[in-house]
Amino acid sequence: MIKVHVPATSANLCIGYDCLGLALDLYNHFTFEKSDALEITGCDPQFQNEDNLVVVAFKRVCQYLKVDFPSFHLHIDAQIPVSSGLGSSASCLVAGIAGANAWFEANLDLQSMVTLATQLEGHPDNVAPAILGQASISYFYKDKVISTIVSCHGWHGLVMMPDYQVNTKKARKVIPSSIEHDKACLQVAHALTFMQALQNKDEDKLLASCMDYLHEPYRRQLIKEYDDIHQYCFERNFPMWISGSGPTMMAISIKEENIRNLYLWMKENYPNIQCHFVTIDQKGVSVDYE
């Protein structure tokens, strides 16, 4: 029996559209066992077939390794909410790749796994941190993905999940095709500052760098609670952002008290929004054998 554990992720991190991501200590668990036929349990019946993203990714590794696709029983224990902006789909792709790697004892290196997952996902900001852990910067170069791990720990976070969904295609359509040159320069400066501040636990610089020009000014209109929560956090000098394409939002702080107070404020003002305390996952995808 092979057990694969994949962390949730927060993609974009405000200023890193499609290239920055952060792994969180909320997990999906996947079990692979030998079986006479493909069997999938633990998920909605509509996903209990070969179109399941875990199976799709497993097959992609089979093609890459030039081996036959085996039969197995896949059981999914999902703790990451679906279509919430926390990398649920990415976790399935990563699980399929890691599961196949373990099944065939292929010893794929992490960067190859990131590349395979990105080829399926389309962009690396969710799959890279799910594989690598911590925070990561990733982009395509020629036919592979280049990833850099940014070591970070000690941050306390709160993910805030409204009780509705934001369609990813709609969220991409609201983004303009170009921005002004001066804003592009600021975007680069903010991204560089953000990653160093995250690593150095410099909350003041992290807050100052959380000013995006690529997607948040346009996607915020799709999340009706965004402006109020954003104002609360920034008035108290800690950052928050849209996780992925939303509607989930995330706030982080070095000071646990800030996050605890935000949680209490959310419960009072937005009781219908689910809130979860999180920290930064340190190791990414992991595999156990039984």
UniProtKB/TrEMBL annotation:
Tell me the Pfam families matching this sequence. GHMP_kinases_C, GHMP_kinases_N
**What GO molecular functions are on record for this protein?**
ATP binding; homoserine kinase activity
Reaction(s) catalysed by this chain, per the record, are:
L-homoserine + ATP = O-phospho-L-homoserine + ADP + H(+)
The GO cellular component terms are: cytoplasm
Domain (GHMP kinase N-terminal): residue spans on this chain: 52-134
| Domain of life (superkingdom) | Bacteria
Where does the chain cross the membrane? none
Residues reported to bind ATP: P81, V82, S83, S84, G85, L86, G87, S88, S89, A90, S91
Q: Where in the cell is it found?
A: Cytoplasm
Q: Which UniProt keywords apply?
A: Amino-acid biosynthesis, ATP-binding, Cytoplasm, Kinase, Nucleotide-binding, Threonine biosynthesis, Transferase
- The top EC class is transferase
Q: Give the GO terms filed under biological process for this record.
A: threonine biosynthetic process
Q: Name the predominant localization.
A: cytoplasm
Using the record's annotation, list all stretches that form the GHMP kinase C-terminal domain: 196-271
User: Which EC number applies?
Assistant: 2.7.1.39
Cite the annotated pathway.
Amino-acid biosynthesis; L-threonine biosynthesis; L-threonine from L-aspartate: step 4/5
According to its UniProt record, which protein family does this protein belong to? Belongs to the GHMP kinase family. Homoserine kinase subfamily.
NCBIfam families on file: thrB (TIGR00191)
Q: What is this protein called?
A: Homoserine kinase
Q: Which gene encodes it?
A: thrB
